[in-house]
Amino acid sequence: MTELQWRRQWKPDLSACPWKPLPISKVQADTADCFLVKSKFHDDFYEFLMTDMVHFWYERLSGAALKRRVMELNPSIEAPMSKILDQIRQSLESPGKETRLTVRTSDDKVVLEIESHLAGMPFLYSFKAAGAPENMARDHLTVPLMAMVGELYRQQQELFRLLAAKDRQIDDYKAQGARLYRKVLETAPFDEVAFQNSMITSKGFEEEVKTFGEKAFTSCGQELYREITTRGLGYSARRSKRIAKMAWWVRMNPRVPQA
What we know:
CATH superfamily of the largest domain: DNA double-strand break repair and VJ recombination XRCC4, N-terminal
GO cellular component, one term: DNA ligase IV complex
Subcellular location: Nucleus
Largest sheet: 8 strands, mixed
Protein name: Non-homologous end-joining factor 1
CATH architecture of the largest domain: Beta Complex
Organism: Elysia chlorotica (Eastern emerald elysia)
Order of helices and strands: HEEEEEHHEEEHHHH
Number of helices: 7
Helix content: 40-55%
Number of strands: 8
Strand content: 15-25%
Number of domains: 2
CATH topology of the largest domain: Dna Repair Protein Xrcc4, Chain: A, domain 1
Domain XLF-like N-terminal: 18-128
Strand order of the largest sheet: 1-3-4-5-8-7-6-2
Distance between the termini: 39 Å
């Protein structure tokens, strides 16, 4: 199966959903941590994963349990579950001016309370996530981040290669007598070592270190995360199918002992 065929058949799941920082200005928390969340909403259930970079909490809620929690917090609500889930999703991913988020954590659970409005009426909801399986930290954050760093380094090296090629192109123009009439546009040949040294001694580098990676999941980072995890899932799926086919072939073609 090709990657294109796999993508046509694949249904996005939580793995390919990028992390998003909770908007700090709208969070009231019992700690000063920075929280990242990712979620996947369907017609009648959702998956929710949250971390403070130390602990990971996960919840999957559907069916009667989901309806019961909604009714406990909003006894008079009358709306289809798909509409309610859409309200919860929007309040989490794009909180409005009147949306309030409250976080309460412990080592083994986290409660994220959302106060918003649905059809002009107050609407409340609480995510109640327990400690996530250990592999979720690896699969949803550690490995994708390492892949993102590797890809960004590859892109940087490609840009350096293009800059070097541009410098050679400019030198060729000059050798043929070309002149730059606007001196303000003239640049020195690119020096990779000097560039790297200037970056790590710049004020911008110091400011970035102070954020402890909070900008990793801006819009560009989210898109790169989505592409990397989707490509990784496709590779794993195709590899699993190849292994399954090989196992089937071995079962159907046992080796005949030679005399």
